[in-house]
Amino acid sequence: MGPTGSGKSTFINVATEYNTEVGHSLESCTSEIGIIKISYPELSDCDIVFVDTPGFDNTHKSDLDILKMISEWLSATYKKKILLSGILYFHRISDNISPMAGTTLKNLRMFEELCGKNAFHNVILTTTMWDEVGEDLGKQYEDELIHKYWKNMMDRKSKTMRFKNDRHSAFLILAPLLESANKRHTLLLQQEMVDMHYQLLETSAGQALFTKVEALVKQKQDVLGRIRDEMKRTSDDQETMNVLRAEFQQLNIELDRTV
C-alpha cells in the first residue's frame, strides 16, 4: 500500500520479475487490486502472494471508492480464514517532508486505522526513490519520518527499510515477513467489518476518512468567506482574488478525490 507513484508496482516487478504497469508520474496506473502468486525457493518453501492496491490519492477513483474496494477484499479473505503475513507501506524518500502535513499525512493516518495497533508489527515502512535524492538529505528525511510521522507505528514494532530498485533489496524487505509468516494477525478493519458487523463509515478507517472530509469542507468554507470579504472591498486586488479562487478550486478537486 502507499500513495500513487510511491513505487508499489515497481517493487512487485523487481521482486517477481513480472511486468505490471508502472507509472512515471503522479497519474495512477493501479486502479484495481492486483494479485500475483510466485514461488521463491531461495527464500521460502511456500508460495508468496503479492496484493497490489491502489493509492488513496488515486486519479481515477475517490478515496472512499478505494477504501470500499480494499475493505471488501480484506473482508472476503478474512471470511475464508486467509490472513496477511504483512503489509509493505511505500513512501517516496524524494518527497519533501512538508507535504506530510496535508493529504499524505491524512492518508497515512487512514492506513494506521485500517491496520490497527495490534498489527503494526507486521508493517514494513518502505522508502523508495533513493536515486532521486542525496544520501545526506535522504537520511534527514528518513530520520524525521521514523521519529515523527511514523513514530506511532515504530513504537509498536513496525520496521523501516529502503528499496533500492534491485532484487537484493526487495528480498531483504520480504525476509522479515517470511520469517514470521506463521504469526499472522487480523487487521482492525477486518475485525470491525466481519466480527463486529460495522458499516464501512463506522470503522476506524472510515472515521479517519470522514475526519479528512470535514477538514476539507472547513477549509473550503474558510476560503469562500475570504473570497466574499475580498469582493466587498473597494480596492480591486485581482491577484489576491486569483489566488483565493485557485485555492478554492484545488479544495474542490481534493473533495472530489476523497468522496
UniProtKB/TrEMBL annotation:
The keyword Oxidoreductase does not apply. Keywords: Hydrolase. CDD domains: Ras_like_GTPase. It comes from the Eukaryota. Gene3D superfamilies: P-loop containing nucleotide triphosphate hydrolases. GO terms for molecular function: GTP binding; hydrolase activity. This is P-loop containing nucleoside triphosphate hydrolase protein.
